[in-house]
C-alpha cells in the first residue's frame, strides 16, 4: 500500500473488502505501514470497520485445544480517537466476542493504542516488549495476558 494523490492510503484501504483479506495478507499490510500511516487508517468509519473485522475473526482464529478448560473474560480497551471496548469470553472450548463493556468482571484487561493493537494481532508486535515499554497495559491476571497469544492463530507477515 502506498500513498497517492487520489485519496491516499485511507482511500485505498477504505475500498478493501476486509472480509476477503486473509489473516496473512492483513499481517503483511500492517507490517508495511508506518506509525503515521496506521494512525491515518485508524480514524472514523475505517477504524470501526478494521477493529470490527479483527474482533469478528477471533472466533475463527481461536485454538480450543490450546485453551483446554480455560474460563476467562478478557476485556480489550483500544485507545485512539475514542476508546473502544471489546470483550472476549473463553469458556468450554469456545470463544465469543462482544462489542462494549459488560457488567461482568474481567479476569484481565488489556489497554493499548490502535497501532499497537494492530501490530499485536497481526503478529508484527512483541507483547512482552510492548508490555515492558508500557505500550500495552495489563490489569488483573498478568499470567493470563502473557499467554493469550497461544490461544489464537496469530498470522505471520
From TrEMBL:
<dbReference type="InterPro" id="IPR036527">
    <property type="entry name" value="SCP2_sterol-bd_dom_sf"/>
</dbReference>
<dbReference type="Pfam" id="PF02036">
    <property type="entry name" value="SCP2"/>
</dbReference>
<feature type="domain" description="SCP2">
    <location>
        <begin position="63"/>
        <end position="152"/>
    </location>
</feature>
<dbReference type="InterPro" id="IPR003033">
    <property type="entry name" value="SCP2_sterol-bd_dom"/>
</dbReference>
<protein>
    <submittedName>
        <fullName>Acyl-CoA synthase</fullName>
    </submittedName>
</protein>
Amino acid at each position: 500500500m502506498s500513498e497517492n494523490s487520489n485519496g491516499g492510503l485511507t482511500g485505498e484501504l477504505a475500498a478493501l473488502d476486509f472480509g476477503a483479506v486473509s489473516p496473512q495478507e492483513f499481517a503483511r499490510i500492517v507490517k508495511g505501514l508506518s506509525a503515521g500511516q496506521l494512525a491515518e487508517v485508524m480514524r472514523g468509519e475505517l477504524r470501526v470497520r478494521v477493529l470490527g473485522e479483527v474482533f469478528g475473526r477471533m472466533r475463527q482464529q481461536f485454538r480450543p485445544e490450546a485453551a483446554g478448560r480455560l474460563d476467562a473474560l478478557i476485556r480489550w480497551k483500544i485507545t485512539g480517537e475514542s476508546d473502544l471496548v471489546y470483550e472476549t469470553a473463553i469458556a468450554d472450548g469456545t470463544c465469543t466476542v462482544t462489542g462494549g463493556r459488560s457488567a461482568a468482571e474481567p479476569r484481565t484487561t488489556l489497554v493499548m493504542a490502535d497501532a499497537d493493537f494492530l501490530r499485536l494481532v497481526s503478529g508484527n508486535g512483541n507483547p512482552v516488549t510492548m508490555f515492558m515499554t508500557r505500550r500495552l497495559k495489563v490489569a488483573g491476571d498478568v499470567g493470563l495476558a502473557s499467554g493469550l497469544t497461544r490461544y489464537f492463530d496469530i498470522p505471520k507477515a
